[in-house]
Amino acid sequence: MTEIVPAEGIFALLWVIIALPAAGAAILLFAGRRTNSWGPILGVLTVVASAVISVVMLLAMMDRPAKERTVVQNVYDWVFVGSFQASFALQLDQLSIVFVLLITIVGALIHIYSLGYMSHDPDRRKFFGYLNLFVAAMLVLVLANNYLLLYVGWEGVGLASYLLIGFWQHKPSAAAAAKKAFVINRVGDVGLSLAIMLIFVTFGSITFQDVFGQASDASEGTLTAIGLLLLLAAAGKSAQFPLQAWLLDAMEGPTPVSALIHAATMVTAGVYLIARSNAIYDAAAWAATAVVVVGLITIFMGAIIASAKDDIKKSLAGSTMSQIGYMVFAAGLGPIGYVYAIFHLLTHGVFKAGLFLGAGSVMHGMNDNVNMRRYGALRGVMGVTFVTFMAGYLAIIGIPPFAGFWSKDEIIHAAFERNSIIGAAAILAAGVTGFYMTRMIAMTFFGKKRWKDDAHPHESPSVMTIPLVLLALGSVFLGMALLFWGDIKDWLKPVVGYESVPTPLPTSFYIAVTLIVVIIGAIIGWVMYARRDVPIEAPTGNALTRAARQDLYGDAVNDVLVVQPTYRAAQMITTFDNKAVDGFVNWTGTFVGDLARRLRRSQSGFARSYALSMVGGALIVAIALVLVVLS
Asked: What gap in Å lies between CA 121 and CA 115, rounded to an integer?
């Protein structure tokens, strides 16, 4: 049984991990232009400092017995209205510490990379302020010890994402992408807010410890409703079906934003929410099944979209949808999958951040051109970018001993433990991953050069390549480190649980089949895009290719099911307002105006007219009195 211990020693600085980037954001955003010269450095140092404190806390946590690793720090009493109470309290345990390390370490590398990438942007101070704000909000989300504080971080992440996606708001496409992301995420946020209300009504508390301790006593119907509402929230934040449409357009933001938000951190928030709420899903089989279905659908949607995009960042965005789908899919498998969902989340956060930053390095050398059909043969002029990108490539397709092999294969194995059909589907998706990623490296680094004469590709400065090298090292060694040295299963088991059931065939069989399928997909991609000339103008393609280029018509579906009905409803309301509400008000005004105009005619301004009116009035009163007396 896990015990909750107060924050003492190094753990007393738990609040500082959040306060440092939050203070950096406040200084950069409110101190004005006077911070332009040193503001970006401040933004980097605050996140680096949080990362150092986080590492020290990890080492201190490892020295404690497993049951004493959950630390709670009550910063202050926040809300207390009647029976509803919520504290601004932080909880550090085996689950939250891995997220804190991912957010701060990868976030620090992305901050450093941004020093070079954004060096010529006149608003770079503001950019680093938004990055700091995002890191602080994400840390609140994963360190909260109750659902209400988690919601605060959840909304803060949404705000920072909106600001960063639309950072270049002078571009109409960037402004539209930011609004799209904001609106779609609000749909998911409705699910989270309703879930929190239902949790309080059901359990009388919103603190994780209280809720999870009583989960087994609640009805399955109530838990299913809570689980589905939490899944809706996760789908919005993690770009899962049916709320996935915002992620591809979000690539309008600067590339470091794509690496930080749309690869390593924000899109994993939904996975964290499901894993943190494991006690609810363990007792709600239908909700867990829905999680599996949503994850599996998104795996294939993202992979198909990534296979057809010529924009290198949008292809990586489709890949992110697919890989997050793997995590959600694993989380829906229950105690046999939570650990592997988090395991893949960590490895993916590193190698996908490296891939996004590698794409940014390519863009930096190609005058911000994102069209892979205008690349080709870049390995000869961008050696460091090529080598580090290849490390991420081998990791994501799951070639041993790279990081993705260990985490993704564990998900596939767990899927076969639950059901052979979904396990086979996960293997097939791995083959599609091999195809689209090989397509990407072939179009970018191999074949003939296809860039225009005015392009002069070159390697990025060291401030950008050093983070690439560090992330590439993580792409190689992180999986082995977490599985063998860190023993990720035993580390997370006290928080999310873990169990394993035997499969009909040995693990080596599934590994071999997965590798064969991946290699077949990679060979197909290599033959199509490296052994043949790549046309500069994209061919029309078949129906599936055309659909993938249109994001599988996600926007069209949203337009038919949501936008147009909402627009028509707004028109009806406007018509009712104009003709009924405004019509009545306008008629009332017209009536009073007409009456006033008629009455105004009696006010002539002549004293004799007023005297005559007084005499006439007096005669009428006198006649009335006579009639009363006579009667």
From this structure: 10
- Identify whether the C-beta of residue 79 lies closer than 8 Å to the C-beta of residue 206: no
Which stretches of 462-537 are DSSP H helices? 462-480, 488-496, 507-529
Beta bridge partners of 70: 4
Contact 333, 285 (CB under 8 A): no
Question: Left if phi > 0, otherwise alpha if psi is -120 to 50, otherwise beta: which for 393?
Answer: alpha
Any idea where the domains of the chain sit in the sequence? 550-600, 607-631
Are 294 and 241 a contacting pair, CB within 8 Å? Answer: yes
| CB-based contacts of 29-33 (< 8 A; 24+ apart in sequence) | 29/126, 29/129, 29/130, 29/133, 33/125
**Which residues are CB-neighbours of 515 under 8 A, at least 6 positions away?**
398, 399, 400
Neighbour-count burial of 201, counting CB atoms closer than 10 A to its CB (0-12 exposed, 13-18 middle, 19+ buried): exposed
Supply the pTM of this predicted model: 0.90
- For residue 90, give the 3-state DSSP assignment: strand
CB 329 within 8 A of CB 296: yes
The Cα angle at residue 219 between residues 287 and 85, in degrees rounded to 5 = 95
- 403 three-state secondary structure: helix
* 237-268 per-position pLDDT tens digit: 999 999 999 999 999 989 888 888 877 788 99
Q: Is the peptide bond before 504 cis (omega within 30 degrees of 0)?
A: no
Residues 250 and 321 sit within 8 Å (Cβ to Cβ): no
pLDDT score of 463: 92
